[in-house]
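Backbone-to-sequence.
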């Protein structure tokens, strides 16, 4: 459906050159939701805008449905862009037009009859749950409602691709979840391909089938979501994954924590589980095999891409040789183990 081949994008700023994209190769399958995640300035927005040639690449090929976009004339490019809707972080609605009129705008530009426009807009209002707001102006809408209008407008010409440029970044968490749910429903009902860029791993985890990480213009990792969470190789990818989990060390434990072991101390560890390990009774096996006590302080286990994964925060209570044996066992069984520090024992222990 979407193929970016050896894409480079260079901007000139006086005597300086800025490499926004560097040899980017990306394949988005038809009917899938593909997420591209990266920090601010990584090249995300430039990448998504190369797809519809709002930002023509300096070199490389953009191929949509077998069509090489950079080789099309103006008329052919305009026709191809009809197949691609786009939604933005800040909605871009016209304040002087009602919800109905904003959605109708692309259809008016296509010179459809008033009857066809009315029927199509009513259909889209129903799809995004805004039939009751048809005659409201943007100033009277919530952020979530504005984004739903923007989604309906992007779908007006029945595109096969929807490009989402930080579509939920201006929304609160609850509204973000409702908009992501809507995008997933649109993907399923209409079979539309969605390319979504974001700086939030929670967004990717919620709806994406595949994910790529971009950093300084390079795509540094890419794969199915279920594979990605269990096989991320780069530190940046692992940082993004861990950002979706919330394992805080309790304050009373933090006060007792030291970076180095000492007499009568024991380790505080973070254990990372993926699809191949999260259903195994490894905690009880370690406790039984090595006669070590494991006190779980907190856990965060979730699903993404049909795979369960997550982290545990625990203290290991025993002798140093038992700690080492437990550490080796966990690693041999594909459990990531990080020693966060060493805890002094409480007086009653």
């Amino acid at each position: 459906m979407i193929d970016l081949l050896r894409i480079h994008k260079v901007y000139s700023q006086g005597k300086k050159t800025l490499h926004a994209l560097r040899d980017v190769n990306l394949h988005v399958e038809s009917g899938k939701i593909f997420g591209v995640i990266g920090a601010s300035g990584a090249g995300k927005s430039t990448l998504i805008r190369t797809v519809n040639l709002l930002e023509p690449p300096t070199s490389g090929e953009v191929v949509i449905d077998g069509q090489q976009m950079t080789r099309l004339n103006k008329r052919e490019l305009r026709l191809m862009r009809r197949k691609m809707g786009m939604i933005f972080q800040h909605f871009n609605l016209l304040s002087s037009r009602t919800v109905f009129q904003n959605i109708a705008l692309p259809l008016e530009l296509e010179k459809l009859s008033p009857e066809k426009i009315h029927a199509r807009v009513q259909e889209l209002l129903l799809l995004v749950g805004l039939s009751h707001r048809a005659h409201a102006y943007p100033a009277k809408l919530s952020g979530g409602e504005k984004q739903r209008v923007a989604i309906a407008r992007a779908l007006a010409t029945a595109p096969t691709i929807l490009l989402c440029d930080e579509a939920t970044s201006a929304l609160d968490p609850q509204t973000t979840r409702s908009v992501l749910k809507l995008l997933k429903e649109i993907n399923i009902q209409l079979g539309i391909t969605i390319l979504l860029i974001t700086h939030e791993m929670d967004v990717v985890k919620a709806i994406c089938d595949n994910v790529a990480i971009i950093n300084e213009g390079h795509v540094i990792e890419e794969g199915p979501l279920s594979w990605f969470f269990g096989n991320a190789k780069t530190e940046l990818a692992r940082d993004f994954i861990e950002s979706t989990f919330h394992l805080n060390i309790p304050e009373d434990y933090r006060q007792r924590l030291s970076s180095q072991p000492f007499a009568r101390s024991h380790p505080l560890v973070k254990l990372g589980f993926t699809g191949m390990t999260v259903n195994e009774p490894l905690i009880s096996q370690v406790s039984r095999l090595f006669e070590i006590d494991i006190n779980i302080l907190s856990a965060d286990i979730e699903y993404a891409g049909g795979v369960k994964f997550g982290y545990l925060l625990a203290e290991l209570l025993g002798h140093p040789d038992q700690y080492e044996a437990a550490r080796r066992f966990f690693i041999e069984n594909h459990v990531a183990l990080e020693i966060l520090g060493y805890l002094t024992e409480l007086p009653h222990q």
